[in-house]
Write a structure and sequence with these properties.
The protein has eight helices and 19 strands. It is of the alpha+beta class. It has a seven-stranded mixed sheet, with no helix packed on it. A seven-stranded antiparallel sheet has the order 2-3-6-9-10-13-14, with no helix packed on it. Strands 16-19-18 form a three-stranded mixed sheet. Strand 13 and strand 14 form a beta hairpin. Helix 4 packs across helix 5. The longest helix is centred in the N-terminal third of the chain and has 19 residues.
């Protein structure tokens, strides 16, 4: 099995180095390496020294690819590094009994938010146009899940012996029992704490958060700041009244809850004051009709984009 995966990986690395891979194949290299690295553990007693094994795997792949070519091959370093990580993680995958026991499930939403209850009693409220991966039943010392796309509100069941860890892009959020938002887009990821304590890490950076604080990961930098008070509620399970706020603020909430982006030509309208009531089960169209009536603007939905006509 390992040999077959190794052969396939070498093939993709070689293909990538010649710029022959499709977008899907490039994404497969990136996502699979990152996923396995994030979810695997290294057992030195049964798997040997991680540095030595990594070097041997890297050298072996490089030599075999060079041997196949008549010219001097300049390795595609990004994927060579990913290959070493992948096989270290892959070995961890085959050796780690807890991971093997956990059947992974997917939870996705379309145009409306939905919620799910996990095997430990934790509740996840997933925004529209979002996806989430979780085990059918938690095994081992840690409860691990992945926010693959979009936004979510987490209400984590307390269990000091089994920390709850959420991977969202390049962030890892570690908690015992608490509630918080994670909002992820292509350019940034935010963790906003409502109750309890939260630790957020990425690329050697770490911040500890308490209620009313948020972590922002943007441009490869992790920072801590105060959170906006209106973000300190579960919009997915609570009616929300935004009283005498700005249109910009309302749009921000709608982006998080419904997983959409807004396009407008005149940014001056964002400063417009208004009061909006959002029922927990309201559709995006219902809320936009209310805003259109109050402001005399014309918000229209086009798939995952809302435009002001």
């Amino acid at each position: 099995m390992i040999k077959r995966i190794k052969h396939s990986l070498e093939y993709l690395i070689d293909k990538s180095s010649r710029n022959k891979t499709s977008e899907a194949e490039e994404n497969l290299l990136n996502n699979f390496a990152l996923s396995e690295y994030q979810n695997s553990k290294w057992d030195e007693s049964s798997m040997g020294n991680s540095v030595e094994v990594s070097k041997n795997i890297y050298d072996g792949i490089q030599l075999r690819i060079v041997h196949k070519k008549a010219f001097n091959f300049n390795p595609y370093l990004k994927y060579m590094a990913a290959a070493s990580i992948l096989f270290l993680a892959g070995l961890g995958f085959f050796f780690k009994p807890d991971f093997a026991k956990e059947k992974q499930l997917s939870f996705k939403t379309s145009s409306n938010p939905k919620s799910i209850k996990l095997s430990d009693g934790s509740k996840i409220y997933l925004a529209a146009n979002s996806s989430f991966q979780y085990p059918e039943k938690f095994e081992g010392d840690e409860r691990k899940v992945v926010l693959l796309k979009g936004n979510a509100f987490f209400e984590i069941a307390k269990d000091k012996k089994h920390p709850f860890i959420i991977t969202s892009g390049e962030l890892k959020t570690r908690v015992v029992g608490t509630s918080f938002h994670i909002q992820m887009s292509k350019s940034k990821c935010e963790v906003i704490v409502v109750t309890g304590k939260v630790n957020v890490t990425s690329k050697g950076q770490s911040v500890d958060l308490v209620p009313n604080e948020e972590a922002l990961f943007q441009s490869q930098k992790l920072t801590k700041q105060l959170a906006d008070k209106s973000f300190l509620v579960n919009w997915y399970n609570t009616d929300v009244t935004l009283d005498q706020t700005t249109l910009k603020h309302v749009i921000t909430i709608l982006q998080y809850k419904y997983g959409v982006s807004f396009q407008y030509n005149n940014e001056q309208v964002l400063a417009m004051p208004l009061t909006v009531f959002i029922k927990k089960d309201a559709t995006l169209e219902n809320v936009l009709e209310q805003i259109n009536y109050i402001t005399n603007l014309k918000f229209k939905v086009y798939d995952e984009i809302v435009k002001v006509d």
